[in-house]
UniProtKB/TrEMBL annotation:
Naturally occurring in which organism (per UniProt): Owenia fusiformis
Claim: Signal is one of the keywords in the record: no
Keyword vocabulary terms for this entry: Cytoplasm, Metal-binding, Methyltransferase, S-adenosyl-L-methionine, Transferase, Zinc, Zinc-finger
Pfam families: SET
Protein's recorded name: Protein-lysine N-trimethyltransferase SMYD5
């Protein structure tokens, strides 16, 4: 890395474990670091619904115009400023054995060297009886959208260990992720798989073993070990989202245009998003999840001073300051999505406890600690659905 890091990993507290502390003044908008994941994988329903992404780096493969046409179901739509689309299809490449798509030969070769040699079905048309196809089918039937985890992330992790020249190195990286107790692991599995989770974990474990058994990590294939692995991706998996249309919009925003042209373009984009929302709702991105060695160290705050960004429209994550940060301050992100963030302390704590297994004691939660334990009617309904 060229510039020295402005944050340092330090022990924060017994309850929070390690986190990022600013060691230099940080300005709003600064990217503190960027990193590639240990593993990443697109969600299965997302891929099933034809959100085309590079099978390795998750870069969106549709052009912005193709993307816009599909999402608003208008096949004659023409986007102005095609130069703002960053997609270059001439660089695309496929696995010659199974035809999965990559954004470049580099991604194809990297994937093959890291995990794809073990995961390639070597079939150009899908054979539903292949153990890996069966595993995916089972997962899709267990875990409907909105997707939050992915059995193929587990599969890629096993395959990565299988193919690693230095297996200790990757196992050492994994050992840094947060540890959970057996009871907490059950809670996570319950949350992700529903009431029948124990039986379903067994089914997933059997099929994963059949497809990918690996001696180096023998314990991962035992019932306890598999539950732990599952909990690891459940609590540490970071959502990844990419979109060629968003990239096009961002590039359009940067264009230097006469004011009337700017107004026309902005109106066009507003109308486009309206049409997309009518046709496709909020599901507009290629979505998946990934494990990041560094980024996963960032703790949560309901009043964060940083956010996770994907500055290259692929799986490279960046940690970006959302305000000025002084040396000594902890750099925190918010694990909650936009709608969850505005909720009462009671609701926020419930979501965090159930999904990430911790009690939030951020400044905002402490400040609101005296508030009555009430939720608005909408929140109560959600609480009922969730329980
Ligand atoms: Zn790629
Ligand atoms: Zn292949
Ligand atoms: Zn909080």
């Amino acid at each position: 890395m060229a510039a020295p890091m402005k944050v340092e990993i330090q022990e924060i507290s017994q309850s929070k474990g390690r986190g990022f502390i600013a060691i230099h003044p940080i300005c709003e908008g600064e990217i503190l670091f960027e990193e590639e994941p240990i593993v990443c994988c697109q969600f299965l329903w997302n891929a099933f619904y034809k959100y085309a992404a590079c099978d390795h780096c998750m870069k969106a493969l549709e052009t912005a115009e193709e993307n816009a046409r599909r999402l608003c179901n208008n096949h004659t739509l023409v986007l102005p400023h095609p130069e703002c689309c960053s997609v270059n299809k001439q660089l695309y490449s496929v696995c010659p054995h199974c035809q999965v798509q990559y954004c470049s030969e580099v991604c194809r070769d990297t994937a093959w060297g890291m995990y794809h040699e073990s995961l390639c079905t070597r079939q150009s048309s899908k054979d539903p009886d292949h153990p890996l196809e069966k595993l995916q089918e089972i997962w899709r039937n267990l875990h409907f959208p909105p997707e939050t985890a992915n059995i193929m992330l587990v599969a890629r992790l096993i395959a990565t260990v299988k193919q690693a020249k230095n297996k200790d190195l990757i196992l050492q990286k994994l050992s840094k992720f947060c540890r959970t107790t057996k009871n907490e692991e059950k809670e996570i599995a319950h949350k992700l798989l529903g009431a029948e989770f124990q039986a379903q974990l067994d089914v997933l474990r059997t099929h994963t073993t059949e497809a990918l058994h690996e001696e180096t990590v023998e314990t991962w294939f035992t019932p306890e070990g598999f539950n732990s692995l599952f909990a690891l991706i459940g609590t540490n998996g970071q959502g990844v989202g990419t979109s060629s249309l968003s990239t096009w919009v961002n590039n359009c925003d940067d264009l230097d245009l006469p004011s009337t042209d700017r107004e026309t373009l902005d109106a066009f984009i507003d109308k486009l998003y309206e049409d997309i929302e009518k046709e496709s709702g909020n599901f507009t991105n290629c979505e998946g999840s990934a494990l990041y060695a560094l980024q996963s160290t960032a703790n949560h705050s309901c009043e964060p001073n940083a956010e996770v960004v994907f500055p290259h429209d692929n799986f490279i994550v960046g940690l970006k300051a959302t305000c000025d940060i002084q040396p000594g301050e902890e750099v925190c992100i918010c694990y909650l999505d936009c709608c969850q963030r505005g909720r009462s302390r009671h609701s926020r704590q419930k979501i965090l406890r159930e999904n990430y297994l911790f009690r939030c004691d951020c400044s905002k939660c402490l400040l609101e600690a005296g508030d009555p334990e009430e939720t608005s009617s909408e929140e109560s309904e959600d609480d009922m659905e969730e329980s």
